């Protein structure tokens, strides 16, 4: 028998996540002699590179890599608990928030349940629901923003999890505290609400909506955070969830014993202390977004004003523009997988990267139009 025949029948039908293309891949495929000639503005990474404090902590930790990590991440959870004013028992770590989304699937989803998400929200929610054979209801966004009223209306008896990415990827839009509070006052008790806050620390503290209050009130809420974006550690794979103790206890049961590495835990603790790096990151993002959005206005391109380190811009034939930009050494993200074939998503880079990206975009658009 073939492996396909032996496999659980739905596995071969599962969708595959299309990530931002790695620089080395593009260099190989397009024959670039020097990978340094390519810039990647495709995965919402932090163009500053990792925090110097995190790098120092990793170097220090390197000599201990013959030892298994503390899978329970005791010290990191202590540090996070102090910073966030929640208890360590309300925290669990994972290999990126992606793994935590999978834990949510393990704990809450099966074929008799469903999830609700926005139609242009982070696609991994659906991929994980499919993995557990749960059904997905995609609720259309309003002005590229989660329509929480429509999401409430979509809840049925079978709904088990509602995902809200805030700010959302790939639209960069946010829902405010009032809308969140209204939603939370009406959501029924049989639903777990997941707030995915992968980009939240990029905002100034006073602009960050507070969803941890629902955890402290012991509502059926899970908040997801990551070290991949603001803290510049995407390659290390470290995220965490904050939820009431009884929820975390269930998520701990589906975690592999040594999921997060000792190196990642050491780097994360150092990064949390690096306020200067976070301040620089926020400045770079604001400066870069202002530049990109201003340039789009001058070029008369529609874009979606963003609260995160990336921006959606309408360029016409998105896949074609993406291909041409890639040939010129600038990797962005086509948006047809999100049902937005006319858009590309550009991650904010350094000033030099943003300028190069814009100049390549201009040249490509001219050549696409003149064809
Ligand atoms: C909204 C959102 N959630 C989660 C993730 C996953 O991040 P990670 O697994 O690196 O923590 C991403 C990454 O792009 C994201 O945009």
Structure description:
It is a single chain. Helices cover 41% and strands 15% of the residues. The radius of gyration is 21 Å and the shape is globular. The protein has a 7-stranded mixed sheet, with helices on both faces. Strands 9-10-13-12 form a 4-stranded antiparallel sheet, covered by helices on one side. A two-stranded parallel sheet has the order 1-11. Strand 9 (303-304) and strand 10 (310-314) form a beta hairpin. The protein has helices spanning 3-6, 23-30, 52-62, 74-84, 96-108, 124-131, 148-153, 177-186, 212-216, 245-253, 262-273, 275-298, 318-327, 351-370, and strands spanning 39-40, 91-94, 114-118, 135-139, 159-165, 192-196, 221-226, 239-242, 303-304, 310-314, 330-331, 333-334, 343-347. The protein folds into 2 domains: 3-49 and 276-370, Aspartate Aminotransferase, domain 1 (Alpha-Beta Complex), CATH 3.90.1150; 52-273, Aspartate Aminotransferase, domain 2, CATH 3.40.640. By secondary structure, the chain is of the alpha/beta class. The structure holds pyridoxal-5'-phosphate. Pyridoxal-5'-phosphate (PLP) binds at residues 44, 96-98, 122, 165, 169, 196, 198, 226, 228, 234, 239.
């Amino acid at each position: 028998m073939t492996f396909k025949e032996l496999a659980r029948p739905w596995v071969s039908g599962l969708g595959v996540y299309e990530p931002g293309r790695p620089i080395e891949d593009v260099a190989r495929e397009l024959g670039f002699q020097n990978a340094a000639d390519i810039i990647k503005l495709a995965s919402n990474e932090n163009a500053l590179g990792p925090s110097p404090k995190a790098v120092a902590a990793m170097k220090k930790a390197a000599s201990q890599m013959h030892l298994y990590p503390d899978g329970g991440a005791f010290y990191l959870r202590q540090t996070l608990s102090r910073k966030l004013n929640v208890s360590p028992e309300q925290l669990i770590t994972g290999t990126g928030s992606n793994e935590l989304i999978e834990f949510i699937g393990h704990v809450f989803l099966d074929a008799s349940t469903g999830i609700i998400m926005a139609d242009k929200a982070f696609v991994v929610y659906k991929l994980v629901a499919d993995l557990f054979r749960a059904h997905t209801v995609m609720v259309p966004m309003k002005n590229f923003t989660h329509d929480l009223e429509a999401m409430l209306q979509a809840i049925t008896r079978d709904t088990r999890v509602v995902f809200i990415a805030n700010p959302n990827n790939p639209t960069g839009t946010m829902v405010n505290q009032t809308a969140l509070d209204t939603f939370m006052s009406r959501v029924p008790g049989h639903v777990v609400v997941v707030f995915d806050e992968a980009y939240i620390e990029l905002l100034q503290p006073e602009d960050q909506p507070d969803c941890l209050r629902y955890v402290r009130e012991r509502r059926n809420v899970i908040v997801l955070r990551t070290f991949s974006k603001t803290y510049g550690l995407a390659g290390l794979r470290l995220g965490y969830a904050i939820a009431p103790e009884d929820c975390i206890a269930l998520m701990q049961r589906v975690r592999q014993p040594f999921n997060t590495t000792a190196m990642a835990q050491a780097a994360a603790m150092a990064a949390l202390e690096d306020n200067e790096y976070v301040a620089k990151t926020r400045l770079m993002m604001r400066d870069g977004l202002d530049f990109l959005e201003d340039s789009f206005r001058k070029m008369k391109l529609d874009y979606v004003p963003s609260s995160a380190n990336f921006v959606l811009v309408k360029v016409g034939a998105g896949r074609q523009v993406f291909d041409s930009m890639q040939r010129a050494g600038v990797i962005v993200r086509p948006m047809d997988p999100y049902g937005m074939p006319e858009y590309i998503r550009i991650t904010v880079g350094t000033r030099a990267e943003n300028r190069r990206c814009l100049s390549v975009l201009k040249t490509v658009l001219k050549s696409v139009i003149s064809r």
